[in-house]
Every structure is written in C-alpha cells, then in structure tokens.
Amino acid sequence: MLELKSLKKSYVQGKETIEIFEDLNFTLEEGQRVAIMGKSGSGKSTFLSLVSGIIKADGGSISLKGVSYNDLEESEINDFRATNIGFVFQNFHLVSYLNALENVMLPAKVCNISKPKEKAIELLTSVGLSHRLDHLPSQLSGGEKQRVAIARALIHNPKIILADEPSGNLDEETGNAVMDKLFELIKKNGTTLILVTHSKDVAKRCEKTYELVLGNLNQC
Ligand SMILES: Nc1ncnc2c1ncn2[C@@H]1O[C@H](COP(=O)(O)OP(=O)(O)OP(=O)(O)O)[C@@H](O)[C@H]1O
Ligand SMILES: [Mg+2]
After folding, report:
1. How far apart are CA 144 and CA 137, in angstroms?
2. What are phi and psi of 109, to 5 degrees?
3. Pocket test for ligand 1, best of 11, 36, 54 (most atoms within 8 A of CB)
4. Where are the domains of the chain?
5. Which CATH code of 3.30.310.50, 1.25.40.10, 3.40.50.300, 3.40.640.10 fits the domain covering 2-93+158-219?
C-alpha cells in the first residue's frame, strides 16, 4: 500500500540545515491503522506532508498504491492526492470564506462524488455539527474546526487518511467521541490510517504504534 525507501528530507533555514530524515524506510499494508508518536519537532508533520506529496523529499522514494511519486509531475501528484488521500491537518487548513458545509463538500466536488451535499450533511451530523453548517471557520471553536476537518477528510472515501493530532484540540469527552466516529467510519470502509498523536490512549486504538526518534520510525 505505502512504501518509503531511503527517504531523505532536510530544511534549509538561513545558514542552518535541519536534517529530519537521512535514510527513512517504512511500509504499511492496506487497511492497517498505525499511530505515530514522538517529541515535538521530531518530524511527524513533515512525515505526513511527504507521504501526501505536499512537500517533496530530497532523495529516496515514496510509492502509494504502486504509484511512485518520483514518476509524477506536480499536477499529477495533486490529482493523485485529491483522489486517494484524506488529510486532517494539525492546524485545520479550512478555507476561510467557505462555511462548514461548503468546506466538507470541497473534496467531493474535486473528485466528482455524487450527492456531495447530502454526504457532507451526514458526516457533519455524525461529528455533532448539524447545527453549525453555515458557520465560517472564524465562527467555529477550535474543536468544531477540527471536527469539520475530519468530516472533510472522509467525504470522498479516500484509500488512506493522514491525521495530524486530530483530537489535540478537543476536550477528552469530545475527543473520544470524534475518535470513535473516525474509527467507525474507517473500519467500515477498510481505510488505511496514519495517525499522529501525543496521546497514548488515542494511539492504543491503532494496531501498531511507532515512535519517531532521530529520523527513524521505531515500533513500540
Ligand atoms: N518549512 C520549514 N522550514 C524550516 N524548518 C522547518 C519547516 N517545517 C518544519 N521545520 C522544522 O522541522 C522540525 C520538524 O517539524 P515538524 O513540524 O515535522 O515536527 P512535529 O514532529 O510535527 O512537531 P509537533 O509535535 O510540535 O507538531 C521542527 O524543528 C521545525 O522547526
Ligand atoms: Mg506536527
């Protein structure tokens, strides 16, 4: 399903080069659900951005569903991502001028999914936001924005969901309810999941947990 070989990534900031991955190898089977933990700044969000093709590696290869990103032009990667990947960003990335319902409908429209409005309303209802459909992101609380982001990641039935601390902004009760819903939906659809979290309880919901240390993913 997902294979990373000898992946390299560093950031250049002024005169400093920040090495994140020097030789990362990782594989994931279809339908597996894994958690990734690790200290702040260890490179977890960078890892998800690489897997989604949002940022480019400096070396090595990533292939998802047998498609190597090295063989794709940028526009092809964007299309591939829109069809196959659902992303829940650490800082939501909701479109500020679209309301909750329109934000959730966006991937469905890009992928030409039928009945986007009905599906978006169903998903927003399932995360407890049926009363906030017409709110803009600036009119939603942090936890509500996070739930909109989760609904948006699920609407086009992606093969894989990449979630960056999806319950990090929620109180425990809401966080558990949103995680219950996320896991219910991905189990029903057989969706593969990579979940970045700082919570051991959230990680326990996954089949495997890895810790990102010094550019390596070590199974816990
Ligand atoms: N675009 C960038 N340019 C320069 N440095 C960056 C950039 N993005 C991230 N970094 C640095 O790379 C390191 C890894 O960042 P990343 O966001 O992947 O960490 P993280 O493990 O997700 O942390 P957190 O748990 O705090 O979200 C950090 O030290 C960060 O400052
Ligand atoms: Mg992060």
Report:
1. 9
2. -70, -45
3. 11
4. 2-93+158-219
5. 3.40.50.300
Residue nearest atom 6 in ligand 1 by C-alpha distance: 11
Structure tokens at 173: 């009760």
Instruction: Write the pLDDT tens digit of every residue in 106-150.
Output: 999 888 889 999 999 999 998 889 999 999 999 998 888 988 999
Burial profile 121-156: b = 16 or more Cβ within 10 angstroms, e = fewer: bebbebbebeebbebebeebeebbbbbbbbbbbbbb
Q: Is 46 in the pocket of ligand 1 (CB under 6 A)?
A: yes
Run of H or E residues at 11: strand 2-13
Cα(25) to centroid of ligand 2, in Å?
Answer: 20
Give the residue whose CA is nearest to atom 28 of ligand 1: 41
The answer, yes or no, to whether any atom of ligand 1 lies below 6 A from the CB of 95, is no
Nearest ligand 1 atom to the CA of 38 is 21
What tens digit of pLDDT does each residue of 176-214 get? 888 888 898 889 889 999 999 999 999 999 999 999 999
Near ion ligand 2, which residues have CB within 5 Å?
45, 90
The pairing of beta strand 160-164 with beta strand 192-196: parallel
